[in-house]
Structures are given as C-alpha cells and as structure tokens.
Amino acid sequence: xxxxxxxxxxxxxxxxxxxxxxxxxxxxxxxxxxxxxxxxxxxxxxxxxxxxxxxxxxxxxxxxxxxxxxxxxxxxxxxxxxxxxxxxxxxxxxxxxxxxxxxxxxxxxxxxxxxxxxxxxxxxxxxxxxxxxxxxxxxxxxxxxxxxxxxxxxxxxxxxxxxxxxxxxxxxxxxxxxxxxxxxxxxxxxxxxxxxxxxxxxxxxxxxxxxxxxxxxxxxxxxxxxxxxxxxxxxxxxxxxxxxxxxxxxxxxxxxxxxxxxxxxxxxxxxxxxxxxxxxxxxxxxxxxxxxxxxxxxxxxxxxxxxxxxxxxxxxxxxxxxxxxxxxxxxxxxxxxxxxxxxxxxxxxxxxxxxxxxxxxxxxxxxxxxxxxxxxxxxxxxxxxxxxxxxxxxxxxxxxxxxxxxxxxxxxxxxxxxxxxxxxxxxxxxxxxx
Length: 434
Known about the structure:
Helix content: 25-40%
CATH topology of the largest domain: 2-enoyl-CoA Hydratase, Chain A, domain 1
Oligomer: single chain
Distance between the termini: 38 Å
Structural class: alpha+beta
Strand content: 15-25%
Strand order of the largest sheet: 10-11-12-15-16-21
Shape: globular
Number of helices: 13
C-alpha cells in the first residue's frame, strides 16, 4: 500500500500474522518444493526426517528458551522412536502433536500435507457443527444450513453425548492427557471445538440429546467446506453492531472505508470479536487506530534474543481520503473463549484506555506470534511461536486472556430461544450511556 513506511514493512514481515488460535492454516509457497517432493512419510527415513525438522526448528526458534518449563531435550528420543513406528502420515502428525501439546501453546502446531490450506480463503473439514462447552456439557452452538446435520435434526443447544459409541467425556479426557497437568479453560475450549475432527470423507456416528431430552443418533460424513472471513453490521435500538471475523490488510482497508456508513447516526458501537481468532497484527493496529488517539501504545513483541518492536496507533495509516476521522462514539466489545491473539490485544487496549467496556467471557489467552511458517520436508507445515507479547502496561496476556468488565455466560436455554445475552447487556449499557 502506498504511504507505508519501511519500518512498517519490516514489522509486517516479522509478525506475518498472529495466527488464528487453532482452526485455520495456510499452505504458503515453499521455497524448497524440489526437496519436499523427495521426502515421503511412508518410509521410516522420511518420517524421521520430518520429526527431526520439527524438533530442531522448535529447539532453535521457540520464544522461550526454557520451553515453558517443559523438558524439551527429554522428549526427543521417545517421540522420535514413536515417529519411526508410525504407520502413515496421519499417525506421524499425531505423534508430533502429542510432542508439542504440553507446551500449551495454541500457536505452535503442525499440519500434515493433507490438512493445510490457504489461510486467507480458509477451508476446513467439518460435519456441519460447531461445538462449545456450556455449563460443563459439549453443546452444539451452530449448525450449517443445508448440511446433513441440519437435515438429521441437530439444532443449536443440543448436547453431544458420544462419537462412534465412545462417550464424549472419555474422548475429551483422552485428548487432554497430552497436555499434562494444569489444563486451563483455553485448552479445554480448543479440545472441545476439535472433538469432531477427522479426515475428509470419513463417517462418524453421533449420539445427542435434544431440548426435550430425546436421545437421537445419526451418521455424518466429514467434508471440506470454505468460510469467508470479513465483517458485517446491523443496527439495533440505535446502536451499530459490527461483527469482525479476523484482521488482514484488505479487511482493515475495507473496514476503514465502510465504518462511517456502518455507524451513521448511531448512538454507540458494539464490536463483536467473539469469533475473531486474530490475524495480521498490523491490520489490527490499523483498525484500533480508528478508535484511539495517535501514539497509543498497544504493546511490545519480543523474541528469545531480546529483540523487540512495538505496536502503536497512527490514524493516517488507515486513511482512504483526507476526511477520514477517528470515531469517538461510546463502545462495547463482545468477547468469548474464541477471541484470540491480535483480537485479544485490541480488546485489552480499548479496555485499558477506558475506550470500551468488555462484555462476555474471558478470552483465549493465546497471545504469541510466529515470524513465518516453516515448510516441512514432506509438504507439511510447522508454526512456531517466536515472539512473546506484553501490553503497554507490561501485562502478559498469554495464558491469562482479557477478563470482561461485565461477564455474560451463555446457556442452552438462551441458544434454543435465540437470545444473545451479551449483546443485550451491551445494548442496554450504551443506551444508558446516551
């Protein structure tokens, strides 16, 4: 984009993106495509080459040289043996995930060659359901329109009981054991969200309980689908509500261009970040600049060597034309456990500066950053957290998250009745402010 400074370009290269916490990936373009075609995970030598590349890259790049208290050296021999014994690529990558899990780091992760895709146009495998833990129960929160799940009668609010005759609680405990002790809410959230994961075109039998306590079963096929990321808006009781899915440079520019029309003569603004898993930190900074004075410090990123750089607001970076103005309307921000990474930085800054009240639930606490994606010898991808983050006041958000000013717990009754309690609280708050 014209008008960007060289410092900005360097920063964008350093933090390519604060990756979506656990759901989306990017294939990227490999500079080593010839080498990648030479290694196959179908052979022992190929699997060990992939393992060694993962272990050594984490060893060299990880932001914390103590590996968050994990004995990283001690994990090499047993997991290398397990990698050599894996029967196929999927088993190999499961071994790698088990090795990385105790880091309890949503950003450090591996993706097999078959599971990667373009992050900017995200495709993912699904059975048409989104699952979240509500009041201690794995609950359906969304059913894709026209999906087989919808056809078979699954509805938001239904409770998932078992997969392929195995109780969900048993599956969850099995997955959580890889993380070791001290399982936090963020780890549980991600584990439950991924409970239905599996290879495309495989079938899973679901058993669930309905609103009327009926128990039903259905066999659903996993399939690839695509999600469009961006933003949307509507009005309610004189308040503008904008749902923002992620942060990218094109979205930031379009957001700045569209903001005056979306807000219009509204008395207040609600920014819904409940499904925002992060994105480009600089794009987030540009959007934050629409609401905060120039020079507002958002925080500092630092790697293991001590090298660091800071994010701070500057309105002129977002200007589409000279008439672009900072928005001074009263604001509220909606958050959930799915609010991750750069979305947490934005929420924390607006909250700390008294610019917006935060309503909902505590955010993910997944605020590290990757420098660039690492291509593995078989075509898979490794992300490694190379930067830690602290807010302008020195607060470390990783593992802590942003706590709401006004908690708003979701219930199955709310889901069945299509009630959004967090949105209601925010709307009432802003109308009282007016």
